[in-house]
Structures are given as structure tokens and as C-alpha cells.
Amino acid sequence: MEQPFLKNRWNNLSEIIPENVENFISIYNEREPLLLEIEEFARKEKVPILLPSSANLLKLFCKLKQPRTVLEIGTGIGYSTLSILYALKGKCELISVDFNSKRVEIASSFIKKSKFKATLIYDDAFKVLRELLAEGKTFDFIFIDSMKSEYPFFNYKIQALLNKNGMAVFDNVLFRGYVCGNHPEKYKRAISLLKKFLGDVKTYPNFESSIVPVGDGLLIIERKN
Prior knowledge:
Blueprint: H1 19-28, H2 33-45, H3 52-65, E1 69-73, H4 79-87, E2 93-98, H5 101-114, E3 119-122, H6 125-135, E4 139-144, H7 151-161, E5 162-171, H8 188-201, E6 207-212, E7 218-223
Parallel strand pairs: 1-2, 1-4, 2-3, 4-5
Antiparallel strand pairs: 5-7, 6-7
Helix pairs in contact: 3-4, 6-7
């Protein structure tokens, strides 16, 4: 039986995995009831969230790394935020930033239901990143799910905020597969910036990077010890 979130998908939902494969993965990978509730909410309200396959991998990264400090850029309605909190059983300091006040409010209500704690910030991400750098804050784990065209401009700030052995995960780096071939003209600038970002990342001497073709493509960057 298909999960309700994956039934009657709406147009332009970012994904590179065929829908039948995503459906199978969704059935196979169990999620907490509150995450299923958010998936149903997202389906009804047509709100983009992380695909369950990507969320499951995100949880696995967190379980393996066990970060104590986490930064998220792109709270949305709290699906990825709660995926991280469930993976770590709430045992982390988590700061999440989003510029959409309505979605931050919805995310806050879901997080309140979970009984976990997180600091949600409604503000411009670039401004918040500058403030965190000025304060000397660093993080063990950073998750970025924002506008693709912003990634090259986040890049160096994210690196500077990572602790030794820290990990950063960028979502949507394959952008529906457009970075691999033909793409609509309207996405030309975003694709160009994404390709530059992915090319630059490979040249950094103190980082290891890899792309995992799950969901809409995840880029993993790890700072070497």
C-alpha cells in the first residue's frame, strides 16, 4: 500500500528517483507518526519537503556522526528538522533558519508536538550566518535545503562554521537531473551556479566531498581532521 504522501504527487516536485522506486522505499522505511503527519500535511497543502528517502539518509548520517551542535538552513515546515531530532533523540543543540514566517510558525507547532527543543529563527540566512561567524559559533553538522542558486554564496561561510570532522549536507544538488544534461531555459542561471558550486567543492584541500543520488541529490562535505 502506498504512503499517502507519495500518492497523487503534484507537479514540479523535485526528484531524480523514479516514483515507483520512491514509493517502494517509502513503504520499506518506517517513519515516526509525526513525520507521517507532516508528509500528509505537505501533500494536502502542496508544500515541498524533503523526500522520505533523503530524510532517511539524513537520519542515518546523524546517527553515525552523533553531532552535538546542528545548524539547518531552510526549516520549511519542520520535516527535516524533526528527522534530525528523532535521529539524535533530541540530544543536540539545533538552530534552524528560514525566511518564511508562516512555515516557521507551522514548523514550531510540529516541533512542540514532538516535545523536542530547537531554536527556530525567522530571518535572512545570509544575515544569520554572518552573525554566527562573528560570534565564533561552530557546528558539528549543517544541513542546507535552500534555493539552489544560493549554494555558491553559502559555501565558504558553511565551511568556516564546520568543526573538525564536521559534516555539511546540501540538498537538491542534482536539481531534477538538470545539472547532468538538458534543462529548461528559465533554470539556466541556477544550473550554471550549481555546476560552479559542485566544481569548486572538489578543489578544497581540507574537505572530502561526494554526491549521493537520492531524492534530488545530496552533496556531503566533510572537514578533514
